[in-house]
Amino acid sequence: MNNRTYKGLRLFIVVFLFVSVVFPLISLLLNIEFADFGKVLSSPQFSDMMFNSIVATGASTIISVTIAFILAWCVNRSNIKFKAILAVLFTLPMLIPSISHGMGLVLLLGSNGLLTNLLGINIELYGFTGIILGSILYSFPVAFLMLTDIFKYEDYTTYEAAQVLGLTKKQQFTTITLPNMRKTMISVIFAVFTMIFTDYGVPLVVGGTVMTLPVYMYREVIGLLNFSTGAIIGLVLLIPAFVAFIIDLKAEENGNTSTITKGYIITKNKARDVFSSIYCIVVLVIISLPILAFALLSVVKQYPIDMSFSLENIAQAFDLGVGMYLQNSLAISLVTALVGLCTIYFTAYINARSKKTFTNGMIHLISMLSLAVPGVVLGLCYVLFFKGTFIYGTLAIIVLVNTIHFFASPYLLAYNSLSKFNKNMEDISETMGISKMRMLLDVYVPCTRETIIEIFSYLFVNAMVTISAVSFLANFKNMPIALMIPQFDSQSLIEATAFISLLILFVNITVKLAIYLLKRHIAKQEV
Amino acid sequence: MEILKDDIKLSVRGLYKKYDGKDVLNRISFDVKQGEFLSVLGPSGCGKTTLLRILIGLETQTDGEILIDGKDVSKLKPNERGMGIIFQNYALFPNMTVFENVEYALKLNKELKFQSKAIAERTLEQIGMMEHKDKKPNQLSGGQQQRVAIARTLALNPKVILLDEPISALDVTNREIMKKELKDIQKKFNSTMIFITHEQEEAFYLADRIMVMSEGNIEQLDTPKNIYDNPANKYVEDFVLAHLDQKLESLLKCTGKIAHE
Asked: I want to staple B39 with a disulfide (CB 3.0 to 4.6 A). Which of A174, A367, A513, B203 is the partner?
């Protein structure tokens, strides 16, 4: 294996990124008819939807980030027990599709919901309430993970200095903790905002008469095949993601200057620990309620009329093809994880371990660009660009769109891992006659096994839960199982949607568990 | 010091490098003989690292020739020039044991792969690292890592070994030990070494000859003693001697003070 293999693969990556990212984005722009532009944007319907989207997203973002912030603080700054397990449990909602969160709310708080009947309450779920509640459930784990990172990597010596200077706890919080968080906080807010702003899953099932932009886009494209209007809305949805992208790029340029000299020392404080415990338990209960509802509805005869135990719903779900679509999803997720891992890791290798050339810089930028393209928009771009080609309508295009949709985060993970090696590694290998591909396989891959496993797991789970990018590209043959949820929901097969959500959760938990055991095995080997 | 023509291992002829419109190396020429330890001494930005990288082929010169045993190697790939290089921090392969680090490049070498095990064992034996052969780099001290890096280079039997400030990363105590070890190894293997440094004492301690560089030019190339006794110009006097004298003075002051007390 010589350097020609490496050069060939690098060329392949350049072509691959142009075909799968740049050209589809261009075709989105080319598909907009200018006459429609003014018509769509100036219609009263559009301003209503814009208003709905901004209000619902804004409110959800503020509440979601606040809940996540307090949660991250409780887990990282108190002496509560089972921290590690709690941290994992709080990310469970990431293992089901966004639309499942909407379905969970319908099952719990809908007009015939479990809690509605049990407690005799009736909140007007459909509309803003539903969208905001569902969006919070779906987005807070992401904010929690990002915020946990800041709490984890704070340098305690600053706090020691503050104590010496006689600053009170409150002053320490306002002068150290908050300013330290500003940069990440902006990233978190933008990430959560973009996530909710571009999601159609939650508002589709609990939005009621409140129409948001992504739902409108979804209906225009899926129902009316109105691609030009879809493209215009897609362009609008690109805006917050694009702003977030620019901010993140800037943050990356400034670099991470934190050098931790001492981890945070948690003092004794009973009141704080009690509060933290209660808060964590409340959040945990809220997270588990929809999951319990899924489980319950999967095994009763007919909700809410006949609550006796029955496997009829599960049998019916399989009759409706759930088995085949589960197979589809498993195949899609597995191939996405493998293909995605190879392309993403190799792309990161090119940029982390080679000279900064124009081509490499371009590869880096395009790799990051997928952060700025929401799933639904990417899906639409793919319809417009790939329609009529041999790949259209196959499992391959689903794998491709998933790979690109989830490209940026694992790319950065691999890029950072690979950048940590001695900068003279390539000079040494070159002078010793060791090719770049040999170095990759014999040195870098074995050294970054954990990162590789992490990327695989990330891609698999996300391919399993995504409904955004794939929605316009799936047909009855290549459809992943998550897309059965909106379909069954529209046919009022509520029990079947509950079972599917549970099934997806089960698969993802199994994969996560397997990954955990594998990582532990590797860690043991290294000792 | 006279060099007989037959003794010459490496010969550099009119080496010139222009980078971003600036002359980084100014048509320099020098010879290094078999078994010689040459220190290239100069402040950062004087062109010494560029010189090293061009010698081994990691960068290309704008003009000039590099001859090894009289043969022009300037157009050859880095691994075909018969040179080895050791960097600061050594760049050992972190996932491989000491033995694997030394054996790895040998196994990939068409001519050496059949004896790779024997060569790796012999080299580690000679360098006194055989007892650590199953350890990973992160289990070794800085000095041991340097020895592995040297063994890895020596195993490929290079005609000239280039060293890019390998000692600078170590702490003061280890630096003293490693300087001595490096000199011992060089004598034991009769290797031809070119050692890049910005530290005057290092250069004076290790070198058979010192090449003082500034702004891409050779200011003086001679034995340490000759440079100390007869600095070629003001620059050499300021950069090399003034610094050494200062050190000497503070040393004397210090011992004087101890004696006084």
From this structure: B203
- Give just the sign of the alpha carbon dihedral A484, A488, A489, A490: positive
- Find out whether B210 and B232 touch, Cβ atoms under 8 Å: no
User: Domains along chain B?
Assistant: 5-229 (3.40.50.300)
With bands split at pLDDT 50, 70 and 90, how would you rate the model's confidence at B26? Answer: very high
CB contact under 8 A, A430 and B58: yes
**Whether residue A304 has a cis bond before it, omega within 30° of 0:** yes
> What 3-state class would DSSP assign to B181?
helix
Looking at chain B from residue 81 to 100, which residues have their Cβ under 8 Å from any Cβ of chain A? 83-85, 87-91, 93-96
Residue pLDDT, tens place only, A482-493: 999 988 888 888
A270-298 vs A44-77: helix axis angle to the nearest 10?
130
Residues A121-158 as b/e (b if ≥16 CB within 10 A, e otherwise) read eeeebbbbbbbbbbbbbbbbbbbbbbbbebbeebbeeb
| Partner-chain residue, chosen from B78, B83, B91, that has the shortest CB–CB distance to A424 | B91
- A-chain CB neighbours of B87 within 8 Å are 422, 424, 427-428
How many CB atoms neighbour CB B118 within 10 A? 12
* Domains in chain A: ranges and CATH: 1-30+312-527 (1.10.3720.10), 57-298 (1.10.3720.10)
Euclidean distance between CA atoms A261 and A154, whole angstroms: 9
- Distance separating alpha carbons of residues A393 and B30, to the nearest angstrom: 68
- CB contacts of A433 in chain B (<8 Å) are 77, 79-80, 105, 108-109
Window 195-214 of B: residues touching A by CB (8 A cutoff) are: none
Q: Show residues of chain A in contact with B109, CB under 8 Å.
A: 433
Q: Is the pLDDT of residue A378 over 70?
A: yes
Residue whose entry in the numeric block shows the structure tokens 């590694």: A425
Strand partners, B222: B210
Taken as a whole, chain B contains a residue count of 261
State both tokens at B123: 């080299």
Reported as a single tens digit per residue, the pLDDT across A258-303 is 555 567 778 888 888 999 999 999 999 999 998 888 888 888 887 7
